[in-house]
């Protein structure tokens, strides 16, 4: 079995001597005797079989080997400090991991902003962010396999908070035949290929659908096909707005200015109240979605 030749405390003392420029200064900073520091570093060098420091006058200088070990030892002591801080965090009830599931068809700009803020306050908590389809959301909720779920509909028996309204608008490539019409009615759409996000909307809210449909699982795939002139799609205004402004896509001039809307719901699958990390992310999420709701509107 491997036996360590050094201790974390020896490496901390070695670093202090280097940072302070000598044993006397390091002893004062660490509130230890100078002889104890000399002994610790001597024992460290003896165990390694290498000279890490050279004393000239009252100052300690790194050897070439010492420069290498100083860099590596700093990571070691930082990792130990992180482990000890993590133990304190977990002892306080802070969750080590948050699992977040997002329905693929939903825009998530405010969630990203909330996560950016959370990262600066996470205290070592890891985040697992997973994208799935409505059926996947339903399974995760039934198994209570996530802390937060973002879905386009509420589910019975679990806490559900309506966060924001997502507005969907019809778009296609500028080269698509539909863009030649001054006004587009439902009969015009019914004759064209529709790229339909797999968000369950074909059974929801009575949305009329084209007879020719491709079901697309991911928003990225729908956008890639639209750019190539394939079909039209009803997509979140938040996502396609910049592409329309840049001329990459074109919004169809609907005869009745039809807009389709859907809520983004935040669902807490677990029966127990959220822990402190989940509560923080929940608060940040509601804040940023609230900002979006206050400023959003049809363009």
From TrEMBL:
PROSITE patterns: HTH_LYSR (PS50931). GO terms for molecular function: DNA-binding transcription factor activity; transcription cis-regulatory region binding. Residues 7-63 form the HTH lysR-type domain. SUPFAM superfamilies: Periplasmic binding protein-like II, Winged helix' DNA-binding domain. The keyword Transferase does not apply. The keyword DNA-binding applies. InterPro entries: LysR_HTH_N, LysR_subst-bd, WH-like_DNA-bd_sf, WH_DNA-bd_sf. Keywords: DNA-binding, Transcription, Transcription regulation. Belongs to the LysR transcriptional regulatory family. PANTHER family: HTH-TYPE TRANSCRIPTIONAL REGULATOR, TRANSCRIPTIONAL REGULATOR-RELATED. This is LysR family transcriptional regulator.
């Amino acid at each position: 079995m491997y036996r360590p030749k050094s201790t974390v405390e020896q490496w901390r003392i070695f670093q202090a001597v280097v940072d302070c420029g000598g044993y006397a200064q390091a002893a004062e900073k660490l509130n230890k005797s100078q002889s104890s520091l000399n002994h610790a570093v001597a024992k460290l060098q003896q165990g390694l079989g290498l000279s890490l420091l050279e004393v000239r006058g009252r100052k300690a200088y790194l050897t070439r080997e010492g420069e290498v070990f100083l860099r590596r030892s700093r990571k070691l002591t930082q990792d130990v400090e992180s482990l000890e801080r993590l133990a304190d965090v977990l002892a306080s009830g802070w969750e080590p991991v948050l699992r977040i599931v997002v329905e693929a068809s939903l825009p998530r700009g405010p969630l990203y902003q909330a996560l950016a803020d959370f990262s600066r306050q996470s205290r070592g908590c890891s985040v697992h962010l997973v994208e799935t389809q409505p059926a996947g959301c339903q399974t995760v909720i039934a198994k209570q396999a996530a802390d937060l779920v973002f879905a386009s509909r509420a589910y019975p028996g679990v806490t559900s908070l309506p966060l924001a309204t997502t507005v969907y608008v019809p778009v296609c490539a500028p080269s698509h035949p539909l863009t030649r019409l001054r006004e587009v009615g439902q009969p015009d759409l019914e004759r064209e290929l529709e790229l339909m996000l797999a968000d369950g909307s074909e059974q929801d809210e009575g949305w009329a659908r084209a007879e020719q449909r491709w079901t697309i699982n991911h928003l990225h795939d729908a956008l890639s096909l639209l750019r190539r002139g394939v079909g039209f799609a009803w997509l979140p205004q938040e996502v396609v707005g910049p592409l329309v402004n840049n001329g990459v896509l074109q919004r169809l001039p609907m005869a009745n200015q039809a807009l389709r809307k859907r809520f983004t719901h935040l669902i807490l699958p677990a029966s127990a109240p959220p822990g402190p990390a989940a509560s923080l992310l929940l608060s940040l999420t509601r804040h940023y979605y609230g900002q979006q709701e206050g400023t959003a509107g049809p363009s």
